[in-house]
Amino acid sequence: MFDLSVRLRENAHLLSLLSHYARLGSEDRTAWRDRLMRLDGVGTEQLTTLHGELIALDGIEQNTGHAVLLPDGTLSACYRVTQQGVREFRRLHGVEAADEQPEPTEKPPQRFGRKKKEPAASETVAASGVKPADRGDDPEAAAAVRGWRWVPAGVVTGQNSL
Could you give all domains of the chain from N- to C-terminal order, each with its CATH number? Predict the structure, then answer.
């Protein structure tokens, strides 16, 4: 299993990228930030790989589907630092963790119950608690209640038969 703190110590570029988002998120971690498009000593493909690694290690999270490509080529509102990313940044830079605020929770969407189906007139229950057609007394009646046509076993039906 990969560990964010180990990878940050091994890769200075990864630490630099996380530091960028952690500094931006120090005031308001919940705000989405523009994607860093250039990092000294890092090519564009490697920068994309570093972003992916930070996402995989839970250092940053991506605003999938909501980022907007600006005319200058920047992706706006694309990433934000996670709580774990801030914690690792502070630990590696020797910053005391002040009162950490709990993760903002989003309310789940309100769910509405289903309407209860009212029994049809043909589904009334006898005093015994068993529908007359369910007793097994009369297979033709049971089939009729369900809208089926009862045919005795062994009888072949077709369009031309009576």
Answer: 4-92 (1.10.10), 122-152 (no CATH)
> Which residue, 97, 85, 77, is CA-closest to 34?
77
Does this model's pTM top 0.70?
no
In 73-147, DSSP assigns E strands to 75-76, 79-81
Mean pLDDT of successive 10-residue segments in the chain (162 residues)? 85 95 91 94 95 96 89 91 93 69 61 69 51 60 70 65 51
What is 29-43 written as a DSSP string?
TTS-BPPP--BTTB-
Smallest CA-to-CA distance from 78 within 60, 58, 62, 55 is with 62
